[in-house]
Every structure is written in structure tokens, then in C-alpha cells.
Sequence to fold (61 residues):
Amino acid sequence: MALYSEAARCEPCSHQALLDEDIARRLVRAAAGCLSARRCPHYDDGWHVRAPEPATDSDDE
Ligand SMILES: [Zn+2]
Fold:
């Protein structure tokens, strides 16, 4: 199983780790709410995990 540090990088998403859905969900669970998972808009099978941003953040949504 690929670990986060070994995951492929997603260039369109600022080189975030490109993860399987299963791995992304495990990381979110392990982080106990400190991370959230979202599907990559560029790769159908790719997921990213990230720390939730403050409400003032204007991101790439
Ligand atoms: Zn991406």
C-alpha cells in the first residue's frame, strides 16, 4: 500500500499527494477531524487530504 509520503503528486493541485479514496479516508480517520478529504477535480480516481482552512480563505473551489 502506498503511503502518503510515497504517493504520486498532483501537479494541477499544487503538487498535493494524489491518493486512493481508501487511503484518503483512512488518513482522515487517523487525523480525528484535523484533515478533510476531497475528490481531485483533475483525476477521477484521485483524492486529496488537507487541513480545513479558516472561513476567510478563498480557495480553488
Ligand atoms: Zn488533484
